[in-house]
Amino acid sequence: MTKLQIANIEQLDDLLSQPTDKVVEVLRQTPGDIVLLGVGGKMGPTLARMIVRATQQAGQQRLVIGVSRFSDDSAADQLNAWGVETIAGDLLDENFVASLPDAPNVIAMTGMKFGASGNEGLTWAMNAYLPALVCNKYAHSRIAAFSTGNIYGLVPTTGRGSCEDDAPNPVGEYAMSALGRERMYEYFCQKNNIPTTLIRLNYATELRYGVLVDLALQVYREQPIDVSMGHVNVIWQGDANAMAICSLADAATPAFKINVAGPEILSIRKISEQFAAAFDKPANLIGKESPDALLNNGTKGQQLYGTPRITVEQMIPMIVDWISNDRPLLGKPTHFESRSGKF
Fold this sequence. Notes:
Elements: H1 9-16, H2 21-29, E1 34-37, H3 44-57, E2 64-68, H4 73-81, E3 85-88, H5 94-99, E4 105-108, H6 120-137, E5 142-148, E6 155-156, H7 172-191, E7 196-201, E8 204-205, H8 211-220, E9 225-226, E10 231-232, E11 235-236, H9 237-247, E12 256-260, E13 266-267, H10 268-279, E14 285-286, E15 292-293, H11 299-305, H12 312-324
Parallel strand pairs: 1-2, 1-4, 2-3, 4-5, 5-7, 7-12, 8-11, 9-14
Antiparallel strand pairs: 6-15, 10-13
Helix pairs in contact: 2-3, 2-9, 3-9, 6-7, 8-10, 8-12, 10-12
């Protein structure tokens, strides 16, 4: 197992945006400009940069256009420096959406999760109304839309995890609205014959955020860790980026569904104890593992697009080093431990 040393954000962003051979191959077979909607989120910037790098490696020319509110100008500046054209605006404004440039390929990363409780109207607007605007604008494009494994609901920890053909069983407004998002894309996919992929992600992680970072910080700060949600999937964000890009080529009618998840079901207790040993601090575990959890089976995606390049065994020491050296964090907990569906 290769030990990775990441000392700063520049190195981290470089690693997260490194394309796989499969990404280069897929983009070579999927010509044309790519518009990324909601590019300003946690995954968007490095995913966009990966497309630029893979396009260069494939010897192609294409525009990569990132759309977001860009409340922080530095995010747009960084994307521009990486070769991504940026457009700032409100994607809930139908006139703004209608004004966006046409493109044969669209990756929709828009959505709202955190703050959903108490702000249900906006949550449904972002997750279920916005897809209709996107599909009307890009009725002649190919669309890969991010979704979430939350639509499946809790499943036994002794099982395989939720597979793409399992029936949805969403719990809470966020998961329900996320299923609403999928249904809107499915409707317009059929109505307008839009090749579509639905990307059900659980859970992307890197060194500044993610389930593993949440657990590492709780150990490092000697905070209690509730193990009621006792098991989880994680996948390195760079690998999730690669799989999401590759899924664009499989967009179809009816919509193609794909789980993006790591290859193993992880024990929260065991991972916390690994962090405790690395930090030489106690793991203050409370509660008892429930017999079910929110778990995705990522086998299909790994068979199609390749196994993750960076493993959990590699992520743990990288996260320990990052936190121990007080490097920047995003300050956005995943709240993966929520069993009520409230975020």
